[in-house]
Amino acid sequence: MVSSPHLITCIESSSGAQGSNAAGNYVVEIACGGRHSAVITDGGTLLTFGWGLYGQCGQGNNADQLRPIVVPSLLGTRVKKIAAGLWHTLCVTVNGQIYAFGGNQFGQLGTGSDQPETSPRQLDASGFENKHSGVVSCGARHSALLTDDGHLFTWGWNKYGQLGLGDSVDRNIPCQVSFADCRPRNVACGWWHTLLLVDKTV
């Protein structure tokens, strides 16, 4: 246990260090899940650490990571956004591709199944055709994506209606949420609920 601020080195210059393959000079994005964490460098490299039981660190296994480690299958891919849920992780690349990994008991990865993924899996782009990913957020067991042009997609656990789809049915693929007279600007997922910032259009 650490009860006071503690410096964590994510990028090291020495040969063989955990950050030696991490492009960039400093960290620009951070996210915390239930028991795991993720960071993105200014070079677009994704590193993860913490509890790995469900593959939420994206290292291709279920091992815990005691220090920040580059996600190997995304090495060379520039990541710009990251979000972490209780047992899962989502990230968005500079090209708008969406990757998901970790626990998937309620479809929170959006892959169309309930199977966990220990390595990042790219989501089917057909639902996001001609839409550029803007904001991504994770709740405990659900996920949300807001595109740059104001389209909101949600998926995963929906027991309390947190997907905003008018029912309490879980979804294992991204589903678009309909709005009248407003344009979504930002989205944030809580453990069991979702908050949306909108502009009124009328």
TrEMBL record:
Keyword annotations: Repeat
InterPro entries: RCC1-like_dom, RCC1/BLIP-II, Reg_chr_condens, Ub_ligase/GEF_domain
Keyword Electron transport: no
Domain RCC1-like: 24-199
Entry annotated with the keyword Glycosyltransferase: no
Extent of the RCC repeats: 44-95, 96-149, 150-200
One Pfam family named in its UniProt record: WD40_RLD
Protein name stated in the entry: RCC1-like domain-containing protein
Provenance organism: Clitoria ternatea
